[in-house]
């Protein structure tokens, strides 16, 4: 009886069909569907771990809703374009208006591409590398006697300060001006990427380094 059931089961089983698995390449992630992250190079070896542009940091939109403030150094993994958008949300009336700042970044990247013909993400990375001060001065002393002492700047602080200087320069340039914030941000990034002293961020960085040199 058991043998009959086994025979019936063998007859009922369909022949095994070899299924070929096709390996499908994932589409390349491009910022706003236009700008590739693959060819972006971080030329400063000390900032490679702190300017996030590759692999997980490659996003279609600079709006990941990540909670980067929860743990120390977590914001180093935040995509650099998103950090730019976040830095633009400054001063009370602009707090939380991330869609507005993403739109500004998109518009300014279009302008950068038209003016330079290069990948705007690469221009942003170069601007951050050039705008971060390498040396600063801090207050040393207590009980009345205070002096300034020159100190090296940590890589993460270099990136943080560069983002703040670039956004502050763009904001101040666009205030009471016919130019839009997107145009001013594009000009600021292009000048900073060149290392031009027309850039607010480069001027401030040079000033900080000059003061630090005198306090060595």
Structure description:
This protein has 216 residues and is mainly α. It has a single domain (28-214), classed as Ribosomal protein S7/S5 (Ribosomal Protein S7), CATH 1.10.455. Helices cover 46% and strands 7% of the residues. The protein is built from 7 helices and 4 strands, in the order αββαααββααα. It has helices spanning 2-12, 80-88, 98-116, 120-131, 155-174, 181-194, 200-214; strands at residues 30-31, 35-36, 135-140, 147-152. Strands 1-2 form a two-stranded antiparallel ribbon. Helix 4 packs across helix 6 and helix 5 crosses helix 7 (200-214). The longest helix has 20 residues, at 155-174. The model has no long low-confidence stretch (mean pLDDT 88).
**Uncertain runs with pLDDT below 50, 5 residues or more?**
none
Class by SSE composition: mainly alpha
Count of β-strands: 4
Oligomer: single chain
Element-level helix/strand string: HEEHHHEEHHH
Count up the helices. 7
Per CATH, the superfamily is Ribosomal protein S7/S5
Q: What share of the residues does DSSP label as strand, in percent?
A: 5-15%
List the domain count as a whole number.
1
Q: In which range does the helix fraction lie?
A: 40-55%
Mean pLDDT: 88
| Radius of gyration, taken over Cα atoms and rounded to an integer in Å | 26 Å
